[in-house]
Design goal:
By secondary structure, this protein is an alpha+beta fold. It has three domains: about 80 residues; about 80 residues, Single alpha-helices involved in coiled-coils or other helix-helix interfaces (Up-down Bundle); about 120 residues, Heat Shock Protein 90 (2-Layer Sandwich). Strands 1-2-3-5-4 form a five-stranded mixed beta sheet, with helices on one face.
């Protein structure tokens, strides 16, 4: 009922009715002024009716023809705007005429080019940021090694030294004072547990959280295999090799996958996870879903830091991020990122 075609038809029919009404009034005035006219009221009524029907038929036909052309061009513009909203910046509108619709189409084509250039600029900035982060990472690695060396010396090394001294003393006390030796053995067990906890924390801290010389596909598959061994989750994965991808986009997508899987493990209570990574045209498509308990995405308290981080990482490389979730029905994350070759 809100179609532009219906509006055209209503307008043309109204014009036909008004024209016929004017024609009828004119005939009545003619009958009043001209005495002895052969026209009668009945004849004028039928003339008005025939005139109205003819004008209505002609108006209906031309309204359909005119509205069809306008509706088609508006549909092209609407489809282009929808494509822009979904991140398909490379699509264009074919402009045939230089009227108002043509000018709007030219402006939208220019807008899509500007958006595409901005996406490439964002990805180049992300690439430069990745290079700078590598330099900073090298310096941070050296500092971290020094910190770990201090921690090992100050904590673990002292605990091992204490274990050595107390175990020697316990051996000497074992025959003379078994109770005291037992007390020392309990202390040795406690210190050993603390040392083991410290070593696990250090090893967990040293675990890499980014790609290390692997492709994006290899890194994700390796991560999924590791989680499959350590958790009871069932994974349904389809991971393709992505050719048109920059190094910065690889790092960001891998961190997004890590963050999404981490959120599933911590919050979802899910038993099955589906992950799809593929290339569709000139876009990289990432889909992650689970069958967990879900949540209300409109609640501010449920907008976790991990979700914000994934959205920020997606936007940093010019992508679009969509999340859908419903309580007791799981969560769905859909990400589309414009593809960019490494050489670009």
């Amino acid at each position: 009922m809100t179609s532009i075609r219906l509006w055209f038809i209503q307008t043309f029919l109204m014009m036909a009715f008004i024209s016929s009404l004017i024609f009828f009034i004119g005939l009545q005035i003619y009958l009043y002024l001209v005495q002895g006219s052969v026209l009668t009221t009945a004849v004028t009524f039928w003339l008005w009716l025939y005139n109205f029907l003819i004008l209505s038929a002609v108006g209906f036909y031309f309204s359909l023809k005119g509205s069809q052309a306008i509706k088609g061009r508006l549909s092209d513009i609407l489809l282009h705007v929808t494509a822009l909203r979904r991140g398909k910046y490379a699509e264009k509108i074919h402009v045939h005429e230089k009227d108002e619709f043509g000018l709007i189409s030219d402006e939208l084509n220019q807008l899509s080019e500007n958006l595409q250039e901005q996406v490439y600029s964002l990805q180049q900035l992300a690439e430069e940021k990745t290079e700078l982060s590598k330099t900073a990472k090298a310096a941070a690695t050296m500092e971290e090694r020094q910190r770990l060396a201090r921690d090992l010396h100050d904590v673990v090394s002292q605990q091992l030294f204490a274990l050595s001294m107390m175990s020697s003393a316990s051996l000497k006390l074992f025959d003379r004072d078994p109770e005291k030796a037992r007390t020392q053995l309990e202390q040795i067990s406690e210190i050993a547990g603390k040392a083991q906890g410290e070593m696990r924390a250090l090893l967990l801290h040293l675990r890499p959280v980014q790609l290390s010389g692997e492709s994006l596909c290899e890194g994700i598959i390796k991560l999924l295999r590791e989680l499959k061994q350590k958790t009871s989750l069932i994974f349904e994965a389809s991971v393709d090799e992505i050719e048109q991808i920059s190094q910065a986009a690889e790092e960001h997508i891998f961190r997004i996958v890590q963050e999404a899987l981490s959120n599933i493990l911590r919050h979802a209570d899910a038993s099955k996870v589906k992950l799809t990574l593929t290339e569709e045209g000139n876009q990289i498509y990432l889909f992650i879903s689970d069958n967990g308990k879900g949540f209300d995405i409109h609640e501010e308290k449920m907008a976790s830091y991990g979700l914000k981080t994934m959205r920020e990482r997606c936007e940093q490389i010019g992508g679009t991020y969509n999340i859908r979730s419903k309580e007791q029905e799981g969560t769905y994350i859909e990400i589309r990122i414009p593809a960019m070759r490494r050489e670009e």
